[in-house]
Design goal:
This is Nucleotide-diphospho-sugar transferase domain-containing protein. This protein has about 250 residues and is of the alpha/beta class. It contains 6 helices and 9 strands, in the order ββαββαββααββαβα. It has 2 domains: about 5-185, Alpha-Beta Complex (Spore Coat Polysaccharide Biosynthesis Protein SpsA, Chain A), CATH 3.90.550; about 190-245, no CATH class. Strand 5 and strand 6 form a beta hairpin.
């Protein structure tokens, strides 16, 4: 989405000093301690959607779609096309062929209609409820993904075999129409290898720099800032030595 605005949802105590076009911060009060961060993220998404509903009530007819991403994600192609290509979903999640953790919460899309926002909010409220009641022991890292999977797969008619094929599909979950997009295209993670990046498939639209791969993101961004004539590039990632991060 070339003309998108970037909204950084953050702790009110953060001082980001954002001075870039189309980039604003959106402070949301909450508990941002390390052991509650993933839980707070869901709460913040719900609170943010509440503000969008309020805003929508004052300007009917103007639709803005939303995509929540982790901060270690790089969008390298136009992901706005999913709202045109799949016109009947309320929200979208990304999946992979992983029995223990089939869903990744690093990319969540919400259709900007009042119905889409309301149903996505209700879905996330259910995820929050399950998270708080079943997965608090995993609150530091994986609780949100486990709660997402529980909400999705608890439906009696849901066929988990759909996760084994990297093909988008639509499914009713509670009151929401949920589009499931393959991580291989919309939430792709570079392989560990020797801690170096050796390219990516041509159909990838979103790159997720998980764990030790975060250094690749930092170095590519620093190189981008130091170069004056690479405006035609969609994405730049430099190879880097292996390093260990505690994220």
């Amino acid at each position: 989405m070339p003309q998108s605005n970037i909204i950084i949802i953050t702790d009110p105590a953060s001082d980001l000093h954002m001075r870039r076009n189309r980039v604003i911060d959106h402070p949301i009060q909450g508990e941002y301690s390390r052991d509650k961060l993933m839980l707070q993220r869901i709460r913040s998404y719900i609170a943010f959607l509440d503000t969008r509903l309020e805003e929508l009530s004052h300007r009917e007819g103007h639709i803005t779609h939303y995509i929540f991403t982790d901060s270690d994600i790089a969008v390298v192609d136009d992901v706005g096309q999913i709202f045109r290509k799949y016109p009947n979903f309320h929200m979208a999640l990304t999946f992979r062929n992983n029995k223990a953790q089939p869903l990744n919460s690093g990319f969540i899309a919400v259709r900007g209609t009042s119905d889409g926002i309301l149903r996505a909010k209700a879905f996330l409220q259910e995820v929050l409820k399950v998270y708080s009641s079943k997965y608090m022991s995993a609150s530091r890292m994986l609780g949100d993904q486990l709660a997402l999977a529980w909400v999705v797969m608890s439906g009696p008619s849901f066929d988990t075999r759909k996760f084994t094929k990297p093909q988008a599909f639509l499914e009713k979950v509670g009151g929401a129409s949920v589009l499931f997009l393959p991580c291989a295209e919309y939430n792709w993670t570079p392989p560990e290898g020797a801690g170096q990046f050796h390219g990516m498939p041509l159909d990838v639209k979103v790159v997720h720099f998980k764990g030790s791969r975060k250094r690749l993101m930092l170095e590519s961004w620093n190189f981008f800032n130091s170069s004056a004539n690479i405006s035609d590039m969609l994405c730049l990632i430099l190879s880097s030595g292996r390093t260990k991060y505690d994220f």
